[in-house]
Design brief:
The protein is mostly helical. It is built from five helices and three strands; from the N terminus they run αααβββαα. Strand 2 and strand 3 form a beta hairpin. The protein starts with 13 loop residues before the first helix and ends with a helix. 24% of the residues are buried.
Amino acid sequence: MSGDQDWLFGAYSLADVFFAPVAARIACYKLPVSQQAQQYVDKHLAHQDFRQWRAMGLTKHYDPFPYNMPCASVPWPGPRTIAAAVAQGPSENETCPYSGDAVTDFLRIDGRVFGFCNPFCRDKTLVDPAAWPEFMVLYSTAKA
């Protein structure tokens, strides 16, 4: 598995979306699978849509693991995220990188403060900043 055509039916499809939670379980519980299956899991963990789906799910304030199995698990094995924390403003940006609306909620990364138009935009970014190209453009721009 090396290219964008290496999903279950060639290009990324609904079949792969269906198996995304399965890939997450295989990864979190470090279940033994074949090398080909592990490559498929790793491809999911690194896929931008998967990372965004996971980040948005982790913004919910309920038990994200209601069917947690009593098995040994490992810390999240996907790409490492950029450390971030909820912060107070002001921010270096005046508008949300996603909506363009005025900022009301804030996040600190590497001593810099970024603003978002609502808690959801902030929290999805908090979980995995690199999953969001719109934010990464702002983050990679030098502070004015």
